[in-house]
Amino acid sequence: MQWSTLLATAVGTVLGVVATLVADHARWRRERSERDRDALRTAFTEYLAALSVARDAFSRAAPSPEHVGKGHVALGEHGVYAAQQHLELVAEPTLVDKARHATLAVLDFYDVVVAGHDWDSREYVRTWRSARQSRTALIEEMRTALQRT
Q: Which of 89, 86, 111, 84 is nearest to 100 (CA)?
């Protein structure tokens, strides 16, 4: 047998193995990226849903001055903190900061409602808008994060 035939066979085999490894690695990276994107999307959806449910419930809360400053308990009951902790595990720090800001804006809104401010008062409208703007900024950051993933 000639050396050139053996060498050509060996080189062909090595190239075939390398090509297969490169293709498998590319497939693995693509699948991992999809899993990461799905995990982010799930965490984002759970957090936004919990925050929205809490905000909507707070808008219907009865005035109760003794509950001012205790919105963190109500947020916990609506699952906001659990969803936020999940978000902290999978999201980038800038996004987590925006989520905290949105949570604080909803807490401020809670305090205004239980303090007895009516829906048409300046304070109510200001905190409602602040909560909405914080949520909007957070959603934009979430969209950007999903595009990067």
A: 84
How many structural domains does the chain have? Answer: 1
> How much is the pTM?
0.78
In a domain, 83, yes or no: yes
CATH number of the domain to which 63 belongs: 1.20.120
Q: How crowded is the C-beta side of 56, counted as CA atoms within 13 Å?
A: 7
Q: What's the CA gap between 143 and 119, in Å, rounded? A: 31
pLDDT tens for 108-136 read 999 999 999 998 999 999 999 999 999 99
Tell me if 22 is assigned to some domain: no
DSSP string, 50-104: HHHHHHHHHHTPPP-GGGTT-HHHHHHHTTHHHHHHHHHHHS-HHHHHHHHHHHH
Domain assignment present for 28: no
